[in-house]
Amino acid sequence: MDRKKLAFITMFSMVVTLIAVPVRGGVCYYDSGTLGSSWSGLWGGAVRFTNPESYTITVTKLTIRGHSSIAGSLDVYLWESDNGAPGSELASLTNQSLGSTWTSYDFSGSTITVGAGGDIFGGFRCGTADMPYDSDATTTNRSWYKFSSSSSWTQGEFGSGSDYDLMVRMEYIPEPTMLLLLPLGGLMVLRSRRKRAE
């Protein structure tokens, strides 16, 4: 066998293949799904989401409930968790419209990830819209509010002293993964580096 043919065979045997792993997402939420009322005059609100999966996830959307009497504008945020309360801003979408039912806000371009069992806060700063919450308490220590930019975050008790939940939901997918097929049957898992909320 001549050297050119041998070199071609050698190069061919070193070819690697990248395979995108199919992903299936989910939705994380704590509200009951039934709209109760709303609060006005607040600076903003946030929901503490805990990654329900045993692997790292990437946040793709926040979805917020509204209705015809509170539709308006707002800024939508993702915050890291700081000892169980909203911390530093991770990503934001400013001057967004809140529709009359559920409105989704796309964060897929921000590539924010949450480790297994980790927390992240998603929510909004009120513009002309009031803050919606559900009609019955289902969880505790999930919803937080703030009266002004200089005030502290407070765990929310809405309505008549009950722990109602803000109607904010988080959509996610598994952290993007690629499989690298190596020569001679080897396999390597590739993950891209992302901004992470632990």
Main features:
198 residues; mainly beta; Jelly Rolls; 6-stranded mixed beta sheet; 6-stranded antiparallel beta sheet; 1 helix; 17 strands; 6% helix; globular
Describe this entry's structure for a reader.
With 198 residues, the chain is mainly β. 6% of the residues lie in helices and 50% in strands. It has a single domain (3-197), classed as Jelly Rolls. It has one helix at 3-13; strands at residues 17-20, 26-28, 35-39, 44-50, 57-65, 72-82, 85-98, 102-106, 112-114, 119-126, 131-134, 143-146, 154-155, 168-174, 177-181, 187-191, 195-197. The strands form 4 sheets. Strands 2, 5, 8, 9, 14 and 17 form a 6-stranded mixed beta sheet that branches. It has a 6-stranded antiparallel beta sheet with strand order 7-6-10-4-12-13, with no helix packed on it. Strands 1-15-16 form a 3-stranded antiparallel beta sheet, with no helix packed on it. The radius of gyration is 22 Å and the shape is globular. The N and C termini lie far apart (57 Å).
The parts where pLDDT drops under 50 for at least 5 residues are 4-16, 186-190
Main β-sheet: number of strands, strand sense, barrel status? Answer: 6 strands, mixed
Mean pLDDT: 77
N-end to C-end Cα span: 57 Å
Shape: globular
Assembly of the depicted chains:
single chain
How many domain units? 1
State the CATH topology: Jelly Rolls
How many distinct beta strands? 17
Structural class: mainly beta
Taken in chain order, the helices and strands follow as HEEEEEEEEEEEEEEEEE
**CATH class descriptor:** Mainly Beta
Number of helices: 1
Q: Helix content range of the residues, please?
A: under 10%
Strand content: over 45%
- The radius of gyration computed from the alpha-carbon positions, rounded to a whole number of angstroms, is 22 Å
CATH architecture: Sandwich
